[in-house]
Write a structure and sequence with these properties.
By secondary structure, the chain is mainly beta. Helix content is 8%, strand content 59%. It is built from one helix and eleven strands. The N and C termini lie far apart (46 Å).
Length: 235
Amino acid sequence: MRLGNHLYILTFVFILSFAGSIRSQNPHNSPTYGIKGGILLSTIDGDNVIDPYAKIIMPQIGITGALFFSPKISINSELNFEIKGGNFDGYELKTSLNYISIPLFAKFAFSKDPEIYVYGGGYGSYLLSAKTTGTYEKFEVNEKINEDIKPNLSAFDAGFIAGVGVQGRFNRKADIFLDFRYCQGLINIDNGTVDNRYNLSNGDTRLNVNELPPEKALNKSFMLTTGMYFYIIKR
């Protein structure tokens, strides 16, 4: 059996064992707040300079809160720091985009012991900083790259999110959760002020004409996070 198949099976068994060993419920519809952290696999969709398959792996950390309409239905919001971007296709280069992000989404739980849930909504992000880094190698050219590209990019991003997760009782005041999320940006990250947003078009460091960034480039990422929810009204 291939290594990839072993990983899928191990992940599935882990989630089942996690779900079977914990209990969760919110009988009083108590508001919750929490902390979260995990990893983010990111690329830039629609950009032929960026490899769509060789995603960069970066951290995500944040805080979260929820208001419940019933034990199964809630509105959730988060405040996260996350690093998006992508790896260049054919070069030892990457672009890293540091965002403050605010997702807002509705969540529906199928069960309460443990709680398995799905959710969907949107997010808005503000760009804190952005860089192109790595080594540009082509023929006789070998150059270290560390370019500030924030002036070339849109200050704001927005898009939609969808996810699934499992949540279980830690004690009377808290739950622990494991969450998988897909994020798709809808706003062009390029603000159109320069010919090449990655600052790789001057001197010896130059992308081929057919490698220049296209009209539109969108953030796309997958996130795997864990954390804890705390109940204002204990169960």
